[in-house]
From TrEMBL:
Record keywords: DNA-binding, Nucleus, Repeat, Transcription, Transcription regulation
A GO term, aspect molecular function: DNA binding
Biased composition (Low complexity): 161-176
Database matches in CDD domains: SANT
HTH myb-type domain location: 9-61, 62-116
Record PROSITE patterns: HTH_MYB, MYB_LIKE
Residues covered by the Myb-like domain: 9-61, 62-112
Main localization (coarse): nucleus
Region annotated Disordered, chain positions: 116-176
GO CC terms, sorted: nucleus
Biased composition (Basic and acidic residues): 123-141
Source organism per UniProt: Theobroma cacao (Cacao)
Name of the molecule in the record: Myb domain protein 13, putative
Amino acid sequence: MVRAPCCEKMGLKKGPWTPEEDQILINYIKLYGHGNWRALPKQAGLLRCGKSCRLRWTNYLRPDIKRGNFTREEEDTIINLHEMLGNRWSAIAARLPGRTDNEIKNVWHTHLKKRLKQNHGSNDNKRQGIDSSQDIKKEQEPVNFLSPVTDSPGCRPVSPPESSSEVSTVTTSENNSNMCMKIETHQDFSEIDENFWSEVLSADNSSMASDFQVVGSDLQPQYLPISPLATFEPVNDYGSNLYVSDTNMDFWYNLFTRAGDLPEQPEI
DNA sequence: AACTGTTGCAACCGCCGATGG
DNA sequence: ACCATCGGCGGTTGCAACAGT
């Protein structure tokens, strides 16, 4: 397919937006919305391409955007979510109201990476439950959650059970605002049978019920329960990890440790 | 004050998946 | 099934502001 000529070749403007352009875009979207980004600039009278308009709106002009520095809590949240999700900035942004993926990406590259490196260099180089060196590594090798996290406070490594369906490692991490538990398994979740998920769904835990969200997944789409903050990442042919939020830690821990052969529940 | 190096952030680029004809 | 188009995403760049000399 032949790519459409870029903005410049079409006689469209590039570069920083002027306050006048911002105002035109805001006024237009207030009146008519942004159903069709491609058509929008022409209709609004802007010499910009639709892509540029969309970006300007979503990253800067949207009324619900929170301006200003990131709080320590927000930074910690980003670090935790990055640990879980990798460089999926839009997914991280979705969990930080008022912040855009671009902004989070910038903060990560300008502040947080540095912070993690500093932590790594100091004696206090182990964030709670997460080794900073792994964060740095992870950026180069995205999403291999099977790397062991065994030497951090709060982590409770467990010997891999003989049965492939059991948990191999349960670790916890926490910061000022969030706590999460990472369950590393040697289970191929695609092979879990219906009974497993039926059991999960019928578990006697009313608080979990509201947290369930059936997600589209090629693993077990109709039976995969996942909390709003949880992610479920297949990492390779033989393993998967489940990350769960503090809202349902007990539930997941109990679920995955019923088989025994595991340490006592971490203090959470 | 002038120059140089560094940092932070807005914006762009290219790719990909979804969708519809 | 194929192709065109669109929106969205992550990576990267350009440049203004700032810090250091």
